[in-house]
């Protein structure tokens, strides 16, 4: 027999992309999921392949030093009876000189970029030919993959959806901001693979690092460390919380992960300025979805940052309600992290499923700023000794807050305060733009026997001060929403649930605040020395907060913290109440003109009314949406926008992909920043 000569071949990128749900990554490269067969076609010249005469075998290799013992190299022959455990190749069909071969990796294969080589031999003669590269991803559709997720709607949301909502604002006023994860956009996959090859564990021992890339737990831990740059590890984002972002992008201005990842690559893997918790979480989420690990961004309201690990957050106030900074422990208005879905074969049974990963740099874990993966189940059960970092997240959702009022003579009085930490833990619902509350996955109902059991296991002495019904009560209420540019009222509501008259002093103080709990200057104040409360009555005391007072010092988080102190003269007892008021930005209106169809021009009319009493200068609209716009579209307005006037522009765009898409808009100016809006658009497929 003459030698078998390989003339051309086809990696069938388009067909394999469709079958492996990676088509949106484009058909320039082959991207497949592990454990699932993919087809390539070989064309021979001269004569066709003959079974029994010709031997065909493949070599797949990943990483800089592939070896079989590490699982980074595999050699396998084309056979009708492949081994169960390893890579396999089976002839699918033969048509003259062309041969279709189905290749399949084991569901536990290492993910990453592989090179593929074909070896042909007839008799003793053999030749080998490199036929291309492909990228192997995790496979949430394969029952034996450690990231297997049973529900198809969930797989669509947590692996395939390139857009989502992230919850922000305040516990009493939850807002959602649109986010473009964009994990299938051009170049994002190669940037994610580059990130894996920049991580210190890879640089220390390349072979060991590549051999562990079959494990989502390992990948998650690497990602949680690499999204921040606190370890001088060429991480993606630099964090900043001091409201000075002039030498970079304000964390509030980002609208998606794509822009951030592309900047990181473009500037030689230098950290991108700046991120805060939701930005870190959303970049990690895009990364995990890109590699095929189901992931979602979650928000915890009133999130405790317990630096000394005693599960108590001590806050110190002076008699006028100002913070007397003595504690590194903080309560963040909200804090975002990522949950990724995976099995935990490294732990005892029962901890598979959602794992919390927190890429925001807060505390070191094993010497590095990373956190997780921590099984959400272990957080709920108080199993603090399991891997990784469960005590820190347990504290974020369960710590107790104690307010100490420091009196003039320096003595401290402990105030009563009910449970406030770990509220309304939120994530986007599957397939809908609504909020799903997942607090119950992190904790048992407050005051329940199960909660007491868990706290005992975690050695957490919970304060017995759940809200008492007797005595005096203090709450802060808001009459209606507070709009940027407007004055608004807050009320201290005091209840005397006793049979005797009480005489008190009431201090009410409002200050602008950042979402991580730090406060700015005072913007409203009332001190009533003589509040008399008749038995079994309620009293409402208003405090008017003026725009002219808060406007200048309002941070981009749009928060005002109102603190009330009620001191009872007879007993000297002090009650503290705190409320975060979210100042609403104006709405961005988006109209879509034309018939939404793939590859056909559409027009978006985008507008916003200036609600302030001053003109807006340097106005910029930024628009993006995976599958809709070609990257980011930026429109700078030439003229200032006068008070109550409309800032608007028209954007032409040609959708590249069909299906449900989000067009997302961010508006920036000198006085009004980080205003977000989005519009869902259903794009019809191009007629065949």
From TrEMBL:
<feature type="active site">
    <location>
        <position position="277"/>
    </location>
</feature>
<dbReference type="GO" id="GO:0005634">
    <property type="term" value="C:nucleus"/>
</dbReference>
<comment type="similarity">
    <text>Belongs to the transglutaminase superfamily. Transglutaminase family.</text>
</comment>
<dbReference type="GO" id="GO:0046872">
    <property type="term" value="F:metal ion binding"/>
</dbReference>
<dbReference type="InterPro" id="IPR023608">
    <property type="entry name" value="Transglutaminase_animal"/>
</dbReference>
<keyword id="KW-0106">Calcium</keyword>
<feature type="binding site">
    <location>
        <position position="400"/>
    </location>
    <ligand>
        <name>Ca(2+)</name>
    </ligand>
</feature>
<dbReference type="GO" id="GO:0005525">
    <property type="term" value="F:GTP binding"/>
</dbReference>
<keyword id="KW-0479">Metal-binding</keyword>
<feature type="active site">
    <location>
        <position position="358"/>
    </location>
</feature>
<dbReference type="InterPro" id="IPR036985">
    <property type="entry name" value="Transglutaminase-like_sf"/>
</dbReference>
<keyword id="KW-0645">Protease</keyword>
<feature type="active site">
    <location>
        <position position="335"/>
    </location>
</feature>
<dbReference type="InterPro" id="IPR038765">
    <property type="entry name" value="Papain-like_cys_pep_sf"/>
</dbReference>
<dbReference type="GO" id="GO:0008233">
    <property type="term" value="F:peptidase activity"/>
</dbReference>
<dbReference type="GO" id="GO:0005886">
    <property type="term" value="C:plasma membrane"/>
</dbReference>
<keyword id="KW-0496">Mitochondrion</keyword>
<keyword id="KW-0378">Hydrolase</keyword>
<dbReference type="GO" id="GO:0005694">
    <property type="term" value="C:chromosome"/>
</dbReference>
<keyword id="KW-0808">Transferase</keyword>
<protein>
    <recommendedName>
        <fullName>Protein-glutamine gamma-glutamyltransferase 2</fullName>
        <ecNumber>2.3.2.13</ecNumber>
        <ecNumber>3.5.1.44</ecNumber>
    </recommendedName>
</protein>
<feature type="binding site">
    <location>
        <position position="446"/>
    </location>
    <ligand>
        <name>Ca(2+)</name>
    </ligand>
</feature>
<keyword id="KW-0012">Acyltransferase</keyword>
<keyword id="KW-0158">Chromosome</keyword>
<dbReference type="GO" id="GO:0005739">
    <property type="term" value="C:mitochondrion"/>
</dbReference>
<keyword id="KW-0963">Cytoplasm</keyword>
<dbReference type="GO" id="GO:0050568">
    <property type="term" value="F:protein-glutamine glutaminase activity"/>
</dbReference>
<keyword id="KW-1003">Cell membrane</keyword>
<keyword id="KW-0272">Extracellular matrix</keyword>
<dbReference type="GO" id="GO:0006508">
    <property type="term" value="P:proteolysis"/>
</dbReference>
<dbReference type="Pfam" id="PF01841">
    <property type="entry name" value="Transglut_core"/>
</dbReference>
<dbReference type="Pfam" id="PF00927">
    <property type="entry name" value="Transglut_C"/>
</dbReference>
<dbReference type="InterPro" id="IPR050779">
    <property type="entry name" value="Transglutaminase"/>
</dbReference>
<dbReference type="InterPro" id="IPR013783">
    <property type="entry name" value="Ig-like_fold"/>
</dbReference>
<dbReference type="GO" id="GO:0005829">
    <property type="term" value="C:cytosol"/>
</dbReference>
<keyword id="KW-0547">Nucleotide-binding</keyword>
<keyword id="KW-0472">Membrane</keyword>
<dbReference type="InterPro" id="IPR014756">
    <property type="entry name" value="Ig_E-set"/>
</dbReference>
<feature type="binding site">
    <location>
        <position position="451"/>
    </location>
    <ligand>
        <name>Ca(2+)</name>
    </ligand>
</feature>
<dbReference type="InterPro" id="IPR008958">
    <property type="entry name" value="Transglutaminase_C"/>
</dbReference>
<dbReference type="InterPro" id="IPR036238">
    <property type="entry name" value="Transglutaminase_C_sf"/>
</dbReference>
<dbReference type="InterPro" id="IPR002931">
    <property type="entry name" value="Transglutaminase-like"/>
</dbReference>
């Amino acid at each position: 027999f003459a030698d078998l000569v390989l003339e051309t071949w086809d990696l069938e990128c388009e067909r394999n992309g469709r079958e492996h749900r990676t088509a949106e990554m484009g058909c320039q490269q082959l991207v497949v999921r592990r454990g699932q067969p993919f087809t390539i076609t070989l064309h021979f010249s001269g004569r066709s392949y003959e079974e029994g005469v010709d031997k065909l075998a493949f070599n797949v290799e990943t990483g800089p030093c592939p070896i079989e013992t590490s699982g980074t190299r595999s050699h396998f022959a084309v056979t009708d009876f492949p081994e169960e455990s390893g890579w396999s190749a089976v002839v699918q069909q033969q048509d003259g000189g062309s041969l279709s071969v189905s290749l399949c990796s084991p569901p536990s294969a290492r993910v990453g970029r592989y090179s593929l080589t074909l070896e042909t031999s007839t008799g003793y003669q053999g030749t080998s030919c490199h036929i291309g590269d492909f990228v192997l991803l995790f496979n949430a559709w394969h029952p034996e993959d450690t990231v297997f997720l049973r529900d198809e709607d969930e797989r669509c949301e947590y692996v395939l959806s390139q857009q989502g909502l992230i919850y922000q604002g305040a516990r009493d006023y939850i807002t959602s901001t649109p986010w473009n994860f964009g994990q299938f956009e051009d170049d994002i996959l190669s940037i994610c693979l580059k990130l894996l090859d920049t991580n210190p564990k890879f640089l220390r021992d390349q072979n060991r690092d590549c051999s562990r890339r079959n494990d989502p737990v390992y990948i998650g831990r690497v990602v949680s460390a690499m999204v921040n740059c606190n370890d001088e590890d060429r991480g993606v984002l630099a964090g900043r919380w001091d409201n000075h972002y002039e030498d970079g992008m304000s964390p509030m201005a980002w609208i998606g992960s794509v822009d951030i990842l592309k900047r990181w690559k473009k500037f030689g893997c230098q950290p991108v300025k700046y991120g805060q918790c939701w930005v870190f979480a959303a970049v990690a989420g895009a990364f995990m979805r890109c590699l095929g690990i189901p992931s979602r961004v979650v928000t915890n309201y009133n999130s405790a940052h317990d630096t000394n690990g005693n599960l108590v957050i001590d806050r110190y106030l002076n008699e006028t309600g100002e913070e007397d900074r003595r504690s590194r422990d903080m309560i963040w208005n909200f804090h975002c992290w990522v949950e990724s879905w995976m099995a935990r074969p490294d732990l005892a049974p029962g901890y598979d499923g959602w794992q919390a990963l927190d890429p925001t740099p807060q505390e070191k874990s094993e010497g590095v700023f990373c956190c997780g993966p921590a099984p959400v189940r272990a957080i709920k059960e108080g199993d603090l000794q399991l891997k990784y970092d469960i005590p820190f997240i347990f504290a974020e959702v369960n710590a107790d807050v104690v307010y100490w009022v420091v009196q003039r003579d320096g003595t401290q009085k402990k105030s009563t305060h009910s449970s406030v930490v770990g509220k309304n833990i939120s994530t986007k619902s599957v397939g809908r733009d609504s909020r799903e509350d997942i607090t119950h996955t992190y904790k048992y109902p407050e005051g329940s026997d199960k909660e007491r059991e868990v706290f005992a296991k975690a050695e957490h002495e919970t304060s017995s001060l759940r809200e008492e019904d007797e005595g005096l009560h203090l709450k802060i209420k808001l009459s209606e929403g507070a709009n940027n540019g407007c004055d608004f009222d807050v009320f201290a509501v005091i209840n005397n649930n006793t049979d005797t008259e009480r005489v008190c002093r009431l201090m009410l103080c409002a200050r602008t605040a950042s979402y991580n709990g730090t406060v700015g200057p005072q913007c409203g104040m009332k001190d009533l020395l003589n509040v008399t409360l008749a038995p079994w009555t309620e009293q409402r005391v208003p405090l008017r907060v003026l725009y002219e007072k808060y406007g200048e010092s309002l941070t981009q988080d749009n928060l005002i913290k109102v603190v009330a102190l009620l001191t009872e003269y007879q007993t000297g007892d002090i009650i503290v109440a705190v409320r975060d008021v979210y100042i609403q930005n104006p709405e961005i209106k988006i109209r879509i003109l034309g018939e939404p169809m793939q590859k056909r021009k559409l027009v978006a009319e985008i507008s916003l009314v200036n609600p302030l009493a001053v003109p807006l200068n340097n106005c910029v609209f930024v628009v993006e949406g995976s599958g809709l716009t070609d990257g980011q579209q930026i429109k700078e307005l030439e003229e200032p926008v006068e008070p109550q006037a409309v800032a608007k522009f028209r954007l032409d765009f040609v959708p590249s992909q069909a299906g449900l898409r989000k067009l997302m808009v961010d508006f920036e100016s000198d006085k009004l920043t980080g205003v977000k809006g989005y519009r869902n658009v259903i794009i019809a497929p191009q007629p065949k």
